[in-house]
Amino acid sequence: MSTADKADNTGDKKKGKAKEALGKAVGDERLQAEGKVDQVEGDVKQADEKAKDAAKDLFRD
Fold it and tell me: What is the pLDDT of residue 60?
C-alpha cells in the first residue's frame, strides 16, 4: 500500500468522524449517517489496498 493511499484512507476516516461528531452536536442525523458512511468507505479502501499488497507479495516470490 502506498503512503499516499494510506493517508487518503485515513483522511476519509477522520473526515467521517468529524462529520459524525458535528452531526451529533447540531442534532443532524443525516450528517451523522454521512460521517459513518465516510468512515466505512475509508475502512473498505484500506482493506482493498491490503488485499492488493497481499496479492503482490504472493506472486512476488
Answer: 77
**CA pair distance 9, 23, nearest whole angstrom:** 21
Rounded CA-CA distance 24/30 in Å is 10
Q: ∠17-28-36 over CA atoms, to 5°?
A: 30
Instruction: For residue 20, give the nearest of 44, 42, 48, 46 by alpha carbon.
Output: 42
The pTM score is 0.79
